[in-house]
Backbone:
């Protein structure tokens, strides 16, 4: 059975939440591009799309149906289409291309770990590739229905595995079914006084299993930690058997296998459960915005905060380009822009780099940390813009993907990519990737959104008028330039989007030949026939 | 070339540091055992020991000598003996057994990573097993010269790889040669204003490479983090090639291979470099002792401290048994014991569980954290014993291994083992392991020494009159009971001593069959002939 709300196949979220493209956005882009945006082309409807017939054999269909029940094996166009792609830019292009869409031959909805094991056994016997499917929000091709040499492929949708399996309050450990989505998980925890504190931009649709499989960071990772840092136990069902790792605070018993589960991207098996560190639900949540004189000043100040233990839970520092577009898109241009400039000038500043801080926790501890942090920031030239601008960001924190859809309908390519590096290398990497992208797009912006003792993430957004003749080639060229620049300038190929299909060719630059071989050996051990998510990660 | 100070083969450290067995210790043990300790049997001298002739072929000797230089290939009795064993109780017994000691056929001292690579190539070609050797402080058989089916085995002593390779101050990353020992490493860092904050009991002799290979914790791990948490980059030289992992704050590029290097125990390759998070050298170091009403009250209070972010850098809570022996060994019995009891009674307390707290950092932040922590502890019934008792612990923090040697000379078995579990399971595990050991030893004590959000470590010490007829069988029986109890009660088989030889049979209980197979696959990929540290870990 599908969950109550499935995302539309043609874009982000459900239609009702999509909103509209604001006039501010259109006018800023038209000015930047020096040309009007194209007329809107509506995304295709379900009936417009072409899909091959399911290749699942009768025998396999019967076996799978007997295993999970007929209602939990779907081969209809709707189910297959929704599971045909993730939400990367190439996925959105494919849906709009008019070409025949590759789709899984069936969608299987297991009830529990034992169902997953049985399905994997059938797929092993019948030679069927398996794509584990959580929220379907991958932006790197992570759920593409690739067959890997097999005749058929199924999407294994984990939406029925969505229990809060255990809540160990004294140990601060929550154990969750892999298919739990963000809002439902937070609802279950908040009702008991806790939070996971994990809020990726995909929060509304992505799942616990997907977060672990892709080493998700979350917008509040600076405070609550990344998902791989919070993972204390896991179950991963693989064709060769189950990895069942008990929740443990620490161990010296050889290499930590939790680190093989985190980042396994469905290629080593199916994550069915995860035990994660949880936190008390915050007493206070306080967002605010400040203007920093420059991105470099912001980065240096954030380094100080992090290394002095003063960081807020959410930290987001936009560079000058992203600050400009952010203000413009929010309608802070024209008269409002002049007011802002006047305000900043009156305090000895100017529009520079916008900083969003989000404080979450017990009120006493926040007050103290915040006072100390603001003192550091003000010494670095910060000018407070108040809580309103901070709340505005928090309100729209999950909405950017909708904007991307609207822009695509108006012939605008919007894409993002992300990396991380040490503090000492941050500026070099920022410039290297920015320069590479500038050759492909009239707008390139960047922000820092995750702080670590030793470094930070960089998240780039680039926007260009779409090349209608070959939009995929246009994207590929920009993506390739950016990835090459990331490697050349010492960044990691992905900080939180994962490898999927798009970054596969760069894994060797990341891990070396011996490292990739070691991972392949792990895969061959857990998945000897190569059923699991072929063509991804390795 | 050997380092300036090599440990004596017959016990811990160098003779000059060994001190003497105090009368307090002797009298307490004789009272507990109800019998006088045996007369001292001095450990054997170098010339007493029997050693087989080196099995290294002339051809291999010539090749290795040409590779590292004749001065860096040693086959003399002294070098072979010092590398013949670690410092576990079975190792100490073997040295004293009068039986022929297995020893490596040669000791090779590479100068750098390129030497290591060349040596591994020669060993691959000639069929020679390789035991990477750092400080030789393993207490689980990690450096035993096992041949794994090969005719000969060398110890690869990394003491020449002891550079501070890079210090990235703005990123708080230090990159160290694997052979750097604790004191030298700290000296290099302190001279520049930093500390690694890593102080295992073996600190004086153990090395960076060994810490990473065994996922060492360190007595200050509660504050500074475990070595595996601090590892941001590494180089591991394996027969199939090098794993060269750049220092990165975070990544989502598939499974984190740093987690294969940490805990690799020489079985996957030779760690040659490690990049680790460093911290500013503390402005203030403040140790103190408190008496808690009971071990359970201490555990519960420490859970509160840790989950409220108030933990000191060093936390050590002894149970009632360890408290009793600790006070007795320090001479706080008899008249002094009565004084202590009177002091405690006057404050409404009694001897219970001794708590040692060590605060390290900037003075302002410590004062505040300490005040809040002491308030929590006092609510839980803590009575302050002052800084003197804390300093006394800090002064003797690396000296317990010497005591073990002295006791062994007097016919007393002393052994330690350690585990960890979630807070909610801590008491159950404590009782289960304690009961198992009580069947083997008249004294069993325990302390908590590492706090985590989700749980804590338990470190057991047991002491018994040695069974002179078969001391190894006596040890094996106790060890077996304790390990079985750890597994049965949900603990990890080792929190910071590693797997080595002694815990190998329990790896399957830890990782499951599929997990062990996956690790074996990694080994087969990196070390196809199985040269590397055979018989350990896997």
Residues:
């Amino acid at each position: 059975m599908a969950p109550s709300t499935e995302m539309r196949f043609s874009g982000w979220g459900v239609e009702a939440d999509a909103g509209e493209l604001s006039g501010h956005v259109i006018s800023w882009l038209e000015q930047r591009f020096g040309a009007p945006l194209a007329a809107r082309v509506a995304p295709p409807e379900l009936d417009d799309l072409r899909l091959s017939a399911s290749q699942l054999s009768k025998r396999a269909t019967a076996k799978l149906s007997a295993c999970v029940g007929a209602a939990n094996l779907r081969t209809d166009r709707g189910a297959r289409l929704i599971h045909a792609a993730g939400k990367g830019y190439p996925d959105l292009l494919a849906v709009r291309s008019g070409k025949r869409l590759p789709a899984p031959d069936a969608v299987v909805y297991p009830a529990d770990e034992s169902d997953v094991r049985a399905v994997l056994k059938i797929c092993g016997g019948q030679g069927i590739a398996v794509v584990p499917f959580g929220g379907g929000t991958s932006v790197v091709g992570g759920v593409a229905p690739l067959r890997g040499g097999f005749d058929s492929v199924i999407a294994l949708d984990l939406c029925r595995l969505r229990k809060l399996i255990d809540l160990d309050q004294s140990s601060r450990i929550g154990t969750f079914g892999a298919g739990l989505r963000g809002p439902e998980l937070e609802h279950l925890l908040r009702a008991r006084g806790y939070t996971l504190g994990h809020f990726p931009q995909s929060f509304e649709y992505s799942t616990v299993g997907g977060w672990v499989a892709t080493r998700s960071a979350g917008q509040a990772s600076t405070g609550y930690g990344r998902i791989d840092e919070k993972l204390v136990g896991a179950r991963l069902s693989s064709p060769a058997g189950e990895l069942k790792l008990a929740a443990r605070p620490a161990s010296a018993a050889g290499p930590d296998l939790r680190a093989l589960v985190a980042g396994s991207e469905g290629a080593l098996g199916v994550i069915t459960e995860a035990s994660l560190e949880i936190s008390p639900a915050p007493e206070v949540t306080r967002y605010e915005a400040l203007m920093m004189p420059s991105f470099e000043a912001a980065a240096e100040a954030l380094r100080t905060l992090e290394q002095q233990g003063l960081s807020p839970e959410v930290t987001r520092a936009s560079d000058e380009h992203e600050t400009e577009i952010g203000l413009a898109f929010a309608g802070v241009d024209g008269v409002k822009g002049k007011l802002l400039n006047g305000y900043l000038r009156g305090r000895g500043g100017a529009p520079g780099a916008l900083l969003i801080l989000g404080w979450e926790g017990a009120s006493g501890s926040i007050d103290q940390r915040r006072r100390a942090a603001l003192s550091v920031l003000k010494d670095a030239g910060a000018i407070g813009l108040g809580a309103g601008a901070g709340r505005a960001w928090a309100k729209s924190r999950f909405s950017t993907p909708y904007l991307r859809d609207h822009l695509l309908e108006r012939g605008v390519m919007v894409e993002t990519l992300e990396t991380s590096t040490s503090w000492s290398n941050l500026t070099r990497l920022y410039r290297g990737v920015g320069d590479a992208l500038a050759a492909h797009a009239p707008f390139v912006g960047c922000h820092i959104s995750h702080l670590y003792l030793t470094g930070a993430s960089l998240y780039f957004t680039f926007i260009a008028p779409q090349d209608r003749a070959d939009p995929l080639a246009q994207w590929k060229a920009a993506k390739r330039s950016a990835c090459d620049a990331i490697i050349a300038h010492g960044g990691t190929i992905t900080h939180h989007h994962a490898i999927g299909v798009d970054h596969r060719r760069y894994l060797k630059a990341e891990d070396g030949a011996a490292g990739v071989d070691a991972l392949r050996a792990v895969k061959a051990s857990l998945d000897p026939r190569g059923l699991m998510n072929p063509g991804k990660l390795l």
User: Anything to note?
Assistant: The longest strand of chain B covers residues 412-422. The mean pLDDT of chain B is 95. Chain B has three domains: 58-281+499-538, 284-395, 400-497.
